[in-house]
Request: fold
Amino acid sequence: PIEELRNRVGEVPNDRPIMTVCRSGKRSVLAFSILQAAGRDKVANISGGMLRWEAERLPIKQKN
Reply:
């Protein structure tokens, strides 16, 4: 949850890349902004979320 990320952003590692993604892209862009504001510079967001990913027919690996 976004509020938990705000409270625990200091626990997020800064030495490796972080990708934010959600269903529609709204929450992930908020998470992306929180991480960037906290000084995380290796952050990327999946714009449009999984809905856009699926609409563009990009590969998805289903969990069995």
Notes: The chain has one domain: 2-55. The first strand starts at residue 18 and ends at 20. Residues 30 and 44 are 12 Å apart (CA to CA).
